[in-house]
Design goal:
39% of the residues lie in helices and 17% in strands. The protein contains 30 helices and 26 strands.
Length: 769
């Protein structure tokens, strides 16, 4: 039993739901509530038989009533101790304790304040009462207080209980069970703690009980076997004889039971107790009333669930073990085969709606929370959909070598051909960033892409004008121009731009501009002539070196990250275009981070800059090539577990993919560590996605934002639910048929090296691919 959140549920809430616990225990037959205190805090368990659905219902009701999460375990820590005690009735009349306002968490707090010392355990063993036990007990309680309102003994969910404790010292254990009665709400039978007898129940010579009142016989016969024998011989005298060692002592019986991980069930009283009588007057003589015999076995008590469930309430204050997030039932809408399986609640798979993924999927979680695995699993699911004939282009952005390996793994396992691009690995293909259009249009595109990453404040109007003046010429530079200018050949447009911006000194820039002008005069190529004329802003006859340097300084600094990835832009490197990937519905994975095969890690600014510019290039290609794809049943699926790298300094692109991209078939699957990593409009956009995954967070502001998102439909979620999410667990807020579904927490799916199981779980044939 693990607590959910940091606070116990409201006592009123508990009172409304605790009756269901009693009903469930009756259906299961028995249960033991066990609390143990060790040096590192409390552990609480519910021990019960496996009765299938009835046991699962008991667990659910316990969870609901106590603000807890019950998880199945194979065994519990050893219960063997040096001394044991049990609670024994000393019935001098029932008390008047009340359950009004009874709070199970108060029992847990009592145990934490010293009611249960370190190294000790206390257990409440429960079972459904026999019909005779209920009848006897109700008559006895009625006799104790005839003016009392409805008593718990009249409840249909009443249970019988025995209380045991174990620890190093039997006398301390006696104090534990005795003091516990003062904390149990509504417990109204006088009782004392007693050690468990160590003497034999039966001797070799036997035992004879003669002409004793039924109550006395019952007080002696603690063993169910003895009680049954006594009940079988009615009359004034009962003779019982047994051989040596037939049962051993009560302590022996208890220890044997505890050694097997079981706390003994409450004994059954077989002999009827003496009947209670009321005071009456006969012939003028007052005849005093008699309370009658205690109606149950001496260490058995009639209770209800509200009295005793607090023993396993995990809300022990500072003594509590680590909290976890509330376990909620999977909404019916997320149970069926409506789309990919993203995790489990127990054995129940949790799906999200494939038909609603057009509305966007986003996950927020700390590093190591599992968000990358989630995105990769959805990528793998979509690979299977392509195999089934769905027309989709798939483009994944990655900035970690191991993440790239995961995408590559799924593609190879499903024998899916595609393009695997690593910026830092020159042995892989590169992306041709420039669109297939005129030099001037290419220049305008590059300026827009640079502004998308750097922002308009960093690349102001003057820098933009400078870039628009030189980039048309830079993209037209040839080896002939480089030879004429006595510069290295096979240069990319990035290197040519840097030279024209003075990156190799002013003389190199002047020489390259002159070479371009010479070729323009020779070829009279209109595009080159126009490009050279634009260069006059920097290299005109009347432009001084100082004036040129003033124009070059700011934009040159923005090319530094691209120059550090010069191999990616090299004309000698094989390239693939976004246009091809889209037109042919291909799969493309781009790694802008460290190469998967090792080597020097690229500059972080380069990774950020190139990721954003590539995203801008993809956006540009989608707008021009994917019009009306939605109506054609064609899609572009985008994946990234670091959305902040793609969002640049503007919301323009990411917001477009969600708001206008739908008509172009765009389906987003994104993740980020937290919303504040994103520009405000991007943050607003993704928080409106149709499917949202929240994973562990530790920032109070982010947690409040997550709670606001999860509680929009009126669901009850707290900051503690987010703070205490276990690793690889998540809370999903989803829609099905564009209708919101109550959020649910689950354990995220993980299929390491088991493609067959992945396919089976996702509803595909294991022979798929």
């Amino acid at each position: 039993m693990t607590r959910i959140g940091s606070g116990a549920p409201d006592p009123t809430w508990v009172a409304e739901r605790v009756r269901s616990v009693g009903k469930s225990i009756i259906q299961v037959g028995s249960a033991t509530l066990l609390a143990m205190r060790e040096e590192d805090g409390f552990s609480c368990f519910v021990l019960c038989p496996d009765r299938g659905q009835a046991t699962r219902l008991l667990a659910a009701n316990m969870n609901d009533s106590l603000g807890a999460k019950l998880e199945l375990v194979d065994d519990v820590p050893s219960l063997i101790r040096g001394g044991y005690a049990r609670l024994v009735a000393r019935p001098n009349g029932g008390g008047r304790a009340t359950q009004a306002g009874g709070n199970p968490a108060a029992v847990a707090e009592f145990l934490a304040r010293g009611g249960l010392p370190v190294g000790y355990w206390v257990a409440v063993s429960l079972r459904a009462p026999k019909r005779s036990e209920l009848s006897w007990a109700r008559k006895w309680f009625d006799h104790q207080d005839v003016t009392r309102a409805v008593h718990y003994s009249r409840e249909p969910e009443a249970l019988v209980a025995s209380v045991f404790a174990g620890g190093d010292d039997a006398s301390v254990a006696q104090g534990v069970v005795e003091s516990l009665t003062s904390a149990l709400p509504g417990f109204d039978v006088d009782a004392v703690g007693k050690s468990v007898p160590g003497r034999a129940v039966l001797t070799a010579a036997g035992l004879v009980i003669g002409a004793a009142p039924a109550t006395a016989v019952d007080m002696l016969l603690h063993s169910p076997g003895l009680a049954a024998a006594a009940a079988a011989v009615p009359g004034a005298a009962v003779a019982l004889v047994a051989g040596t060692g037939l049962r051993g002592s009560r302590r022996d019986v208890l220890v044997r039971s505890l050694a097997s991980g079981v706390v003994p069930r409450p004994q059954v009283r077989r002999v009827p107790p003496g009947k209670p009588t009321r005071e009456r007057t006969i012939n003028g003589q007052v005849q005093p009333g008699r309370s009658g015999g205690y109606p149950l076995a001496e260490d058995v008590f009639l209770v209800n669930a509200g009295m005793v469930t607090g023993v396993v309430s995990p809300h022990h204050g500072s003594g509590s073990a680590q909290s976890v997030t509330a376990v909620r039932e999977v909404p019916p809408a997320l149970r069926g085969p409506i789309g990919p399986v993203i995790g489990w609640v127990g054995q129940q798979a949790v799906h999200i709606s494939e038909g609603d993924r057009w509305a966007g999927v986003c996950a927020f979680g700390l590093p190591g929370s599992g968000k990358s695995v989630l995105v990769q699993n959805l990528f793998a699911y979509d690979l299977c959909q392509r195999e089934r004939g769905k027309r989709m282009s798939m483009i994944a952005f990655e900035n970690k070598g191991d993440g790239f390996v995961a995408y590559r793994y799924w593609m190879r396992r499903f024998r899916m051909r595609g393009h695997l691009v690593e910026v830092a690995d020159n042995n892989t293909r590169a992306i041709e960033l420039l669109p297939n259009t005129s030099a001037v249009k290419q220049a305008e595109f590059l300026v827009s892409a640079l502004v998308y990453y750097w922002g308009e404040d960093a690349i102001a109007a003057r820098s933009q004008n400078t870039l628009k003046a030189l980039l048309p010429a830079a993209v037209l530079v040839t080896d002939e121009d480089a030879d004429t200018a006595e510069l290295p050949t096979r240069m990319s447009w990035v290197e040519a731009s840097a030279i024209l911006l003075g990156g190799r000194g002013d003389d190199s820039g002047v020489a390259l501009a002159a070479a371009l002008a010479q070729r323009a005069n020779t070829t009279r190529d209109p595009e080159l002539v126009d490009a050279v004329s634009r260069l006059a802003l920097l290299y005109g006859d009347k432009v001084t070196r100082a004036q040129r340097a003033t124009l070059q300084e700011a934009p040159l600094s923005k090319f530094a990250p691209l120059l550090s990835a010069s191999g990616f832009f090299s004309p000698d490197r094989q390239k693939v275009t976004f246009a091809r990937v889209l037109d042919k519905h291909e799969v493309l994975v781009i790694n802008t981070g460290p190469a998967s095969r090792g080597g020097e890690a690229p500059d972080e600014v380069m990774t950020e800059c190139l990721s954003a510019m590539l995203m801008y290039g993809l956006y540009h290609a989608i707008r021009s090539r994917c019009r009306d794809w939605q109506t054609q049943g064609r899609e572009v699926r985008l994946y990234s577990d670091e959305l902040s790298l793609l969002s640049g300094s503007s919301a323009r692109v990411i917001a477009w993919t969600r708001n206008q991209g739908r008509a172009h078939g765009v389906v987003d699957t994104f993740a980020s560590q937290f919303p504040e990593q994103l520009p405000a409009e991007v943050r607003s956009t993704v928080l409106g996605f149709g499917t949202m995954f929240w994973m562990a967070q530790n920032n109070p502001d982010i947690i409040r934002q997550a709670v606001d998102d999860l509680t929009m439909d009126g669901s009850a979620w707290t900051g503690a639910d987010l703070r205490n999410l276990e690793r690889f667990h998540l809370i999903v807020r989803a829609s099905v048929g564009q209708q919101p579904v109550p959020p649910v927490a689950c354990k995220g799916g993980f299929w390491p090296e088991d493609t067959g199981q992945f396919l089976r779980d996702q509803g595909f044939s294991p022979g798929h691919g």
